[in-house]
Amino acid sequence: MQVIYMHARTEAHAHKHTNAPIHTYIHTYMHACMHACIHTYIHTYIHTYIHTYIHTYIHTYIHTYIHTYIHTYIHTYIHTYIHTYIHTYIHIYIHTYIHTYIHTRKRTHTRTDAHAHTHTNAPIHTYIHTYIHACIHTYIHT
Fold first, then answer.
1. Which residues, at least 6 apart from 101, have a Cβ–Cβ distance to it below 8 Å?
2. Integer Cα distance of 2 and 53 in angstroms
3. Pick from 124, 131, 126: which is nearest to 108 by CA?
4. pTM here?
5. Tens-of-pLDDT digits for all 142 residues of the chain?
6. Which of 20, 93, 115, 137 could potentially form a cystine with 24 if both were Cys, beta carbons 3.0 to 4.6 Å apart?
7. Which PANTHER family does the record associate with it (predicted)?
8. 5-38: buried (b, 16+ CB within 10 Å) or exposed (e) per residue?
């Protein structure tokens, strides 16, 4: 602004020394002032507005969109993929392990334990408990 103002005064001074009429002097001075004023105002307005717009809107948009996207995507991913993976893996693992366990030599020990329980008239939950206990015990020691 100061530079433009000085430029305006220089031009006006030159006009004065060329014996230009007063309206030329005023016109030049006003033109320079208005130019400086408009330039400063518009520059400040645009800078402030755009900066505020970018900072507020874009930041909000990015923050909201990314947060929502990440939250939704990751949550969905974890819930769907991991849950499915864990569920499938554990299910397959348990199914395979128990199936394998039943059809291997370890079966004899379990059946013997369970058989002993059935001959003592133990309730069914004792039989199941013994079977699971034997499975876990065998798993740990193999």
1. 107, 110, 135, 138, 139
2. 29
3. 131
4. 0.26
5. 555 555 555 655 555 556 666 777 777 777 788 888 888 888 888 888 888 888 888 888 888 888 888 888 888 887 788 778 877 777 777 777 776 766 665 545 555 555 555 555 566 666 677 777 777 777 777 6
6. 20
7. OS08G0543275 PROTEIN (PTHR45134), PTHR45134:SF23
8. eeebeebbeebeeeeeeeeebeebbeebeeebee
